[in-house]
Amino acid sequence: MRRLLLALLAIATAPVQTALAQGLLVPRCAEARCRPGSNCRPCTIQGGVARVRSDVRVELASGVLRYEVSETFVNNGGALGEADYIFPLPRNAAFRDLRLMINGELVSGETLAADRARAIYEEIVRSQRDPALVEWFDHGLLRARIFPIAPGERKQVVVRFDVVAERQGDALRIDYFRGTEPRQQQVRPIPARGNGDDGTISSQRTVSTFRLRYPAGAALGRAYSPTHSLQETREGSWRTFESSGGGAAITVLVPRASGTRPAVTLLTHATRPDDRYVMISLSPGESRAVPASRDVAFVLDVSGSMRGEKMRQAVRAGEALLRTLRPGDYFRIIPFSTEVESFRSRSVPATAANVAEAVRYLRELRAEGSTNIQAALEEALDHEARGIPIVLFLTDGLPTVGERAHARLAQIAADRRGRARVFTFGLGADVNVALLEELAIEGRGTAQFVRPSESIERIVSLVAQRLGAPVITDLRLEANGVRLRQVYPRLPADVFAGQDLVILARYEGQGRGTIELAGTSPQGAVRIPVSASFPARERDNAFVARLWAIRRIGYLTAERRRSGASTEVDDEIRALGQRFGIPTELSSYLVLEPGMERFRDRTMRLQEVTVSSGVAGGMAARPEGDLAGKAVSPPPPPSAPATTGAQAFESARMSASRRAASTLDAAGDASANVRNAAGRTFVLRAGVWTDVADARTDSRLVRVQPFSELYFTLMQEIPELREILVLGERVLVHGNRVRIELHPDGATRLAQPEVEAIVRDW
Q1: Per-residue pLDDT tens for 602-632?
Q2: N or C: which end of the chain has fewer CB within 10 A?
């Protein structure tokens, strides 16, 4: 076996946020074959070597993050594969605990001088033309000659090192950047002669997992990620959080409790004076959970349409709800059809005897009659609560008796709701989605829309479990030094044990400011002051702006269903969807076919993409027959189609998810031709990744040759460009008074004053 070589490249760094990226494969090429600035064709990895798995394990103990990154490669081709393994390292890593293990063999390393290390790295980037290599070009690098790898062979690389966890307010922050999938996974291997291999391999998707664990009860709260959904499990005395979702960058926040004080984390993102966002995460901590008394009403539609499996599921959902009740809670069961019934005339304590009797009552219910939503609302809300009033309202249809007008029903609920928290559940496409959304929004609850094929039992049970122990109620927010607007969720709100409250808003102003959270706990009034800096410009945390946009769209679409379409609301939904790459009812991304580009400026502009079904990636029709490739009159923009019950149901389901979104998972994928980078959305137009934001009319254009000296200089001076320029070798991005375009005929270097002018105008 060829002797393995490890070289740690100590590259001079500028201050950047601690993060790391997964390793990359680069071909083993003779230096003479591809020198910087030459026009030679980049070499490729022979043998079809591909990464098939990347597992990141992080252990947090005493403020130190212990990383273990395990990556598996396989040769899918018929020829011998040769390549180097490049792994970008985080700043301030503890190299004393750094090891590279290949097939169980520990490999030692050597350190290169900083200037030589950077020269080697830039040469690799320029010769290979692989944008993924650029993303962390000013960090340290681990380089290992781990190949050749025989056909069908697998090899595993394990990298271990320690990093001190970064503080972010009252939380510890962990970032991991997965990077771009290596180009080598799509190459065509060169087959060995006579083996019958046609040299074709399919592109493999790497299985990527991320797992964080830390000791339970170590004054650390529940981990939260604004980028990914996390699943929690307990392993003895350890808490473990795992994500297997996609996406390049993952961020995790672990709140640090300070006595009985909740942990607050504040993140900002700001690009312009009118484009500043803040995310405030409040973690109450499990030690504070002295449950407040709740008065829970389960309002259950038992009309004829619920007959059969729906009714059986709803009964089981009620039983699951009853199991979540605690000593000190009260409850009611209110079945309704043509008329309204009740388990008892008033709420009763959640004693074992009362709960057992309520279960028997549920099991004896029969589905028949019509749907009287008015009477059910009045019965649920006209009530002297004996604790925090919580209403869970489940129906599968439209009102057929009593008041039927949506607006009047909504007004009845608004007039009678009082202090109640209302959570609604719509089953099937026949429900009055606008009414259920409005009840939930005004009732400081959530709306859930469940397809008939799904389990209403599971959904109701899940919501009931989340409402187990309110620790802060009627929470409000006050800002001093800056002005907050368009705050979501709408306040006041409630905070439950074991859950974070994530507040997203836009802010005006800059400098030092104070955020004060105030509410009521079982022990009395709660006031949480938080001193923070609100910068004029903050390029990190781009996910904050996109999360805010997701929630804003959720509320706007609900308003559109309640009040009807309006030019102002429709335009804002379109603009947000297009800017942040979020598919909506009114926008999708149009990809022009060959011969259609000439119509872009007149009728195919991104702003004029018309109503879709909410599924992004709409394609312009390809001209057929004699019209192919010829100039034809473009069709007028189509009008919005009539909305069916099924379409309204699916739209309400999506907007409800977005109103409650606390991670980017709720955004949905826009299209293979749409990318998000550094808080911006780019659309592939005629082979160029183009910034969808409007450019200023007085901005100037600067063309830069990819992988040139100027290319590296601008990414060093404007860190935001690192995430943008790696989209490809043709990119157009808009700054404040300058536009930067990657172009093969662009400049390779500029004088220092000219570079400074670009940075200033950006």
Answers
A1: 333 333 333 333 333 333 333 333 323 333 3
A2: N
| Strand order from edge to edge, sheet including 6-9 | 24-27, 83-89, 140-144, 6-9, 110-112
3-state secondary structure of 373: helix
SS3 category, 515 = strand
Question: Could you write out the DSSP letters of every residue in 652-668?
Answer: HHHHHHHHT--SGGGG-
pLDDT band at 204; cut points 50, 70, 90? low
275-283 sheet: strands from edge to edge: 263-272, 275-283, 501-508, 483-488
Residue (of 479, 436, 463) closest to 656 by Cα position: 436
CA distances from 418 to 283, 328, 389 (A): 27, 22, 9
- Which residue in 146, 162, 142 sits closest to 64, CA to CA? 162
Q: What is the DSSP string of 75-116?
A: E-SSS-B-EEEEEEE-TT-EEEEEEEEETTEEE--EEE-HHH
> In sequence order, what are the residues at sequence separation of 6 or more whose Cβ sits closer than 8 angstroms to the Cβ of residue 483?
507, 508, 509
Residue by residue, DSSP assigns 444-457 as TS-EEEE-TTS-HH
Q: Contact at 8 Å (CB) between 350 and 326? A: yes
H/E stretch holding 689 reads: strand 688-691
**What is the 8-class DSSP label of residue 305?**
G
CA angle 599, 604, 605 (to 5 degrees): 120
Positive or negative CA dihedral for 367, 372, 375, 377?
positive
Which residues contact residue 567 at a Cβ distance below 8 angstroms, ignoring those fewer than 6 apart? none
Token duo for residue 185: 């996974």
Secondary structure of residue 411 in the 3-state scheme: helix
Q: CA of 619: how far to CAs of 593, 609, 637, 686, in Å?
A: 8, 11, 14, 14
Q: What's the mean pLDDT in 318-338?
A: 93
CB atoms within 10 A of CB 569: 16
Higher pLDDT pick, 706 / 186: 706
Which domains, and CATH codes, for the chain?
6-255 (2.60.40), 263-289+470-540 (2.60.40.1230), 294-466 (3.40.50.410), 695-762 (no CATH)
Strand duo 674-677 + 83-89: pairing? unpaired
Spatial CA neighbour of 291 closest among 528, 529, 494, 527: 494
Least confident interval from 117-121, 285-289, 430-434: 285-289
Distance, in Å, from the CA atom of 436 to the CA atom of 27, rounded to the nearest integer, reads: 58
Residues in the chain: 762
Token reading at 728:
């490809």
CA distance 650 to 664: 19
Cβ atoms of residues 191 and 78 within 8 Å: yes
Give tens-digit pLDDT for 20-68.
Answer: 456 666 665 544 344 444 444 445 544 577 788 889 999 998 888 998 8
pLDDT digits (tens, 9 = 90+) for 382-391: 988 888 899 9
Distances (CA, A) of 250 to 3, 72, 408: 35, 20, 46
**Which secondary-structure segment (H or E) carries 393?**
strand 388-395
Contact criterion met (CB below 8 Å) for 380 and 392 = no
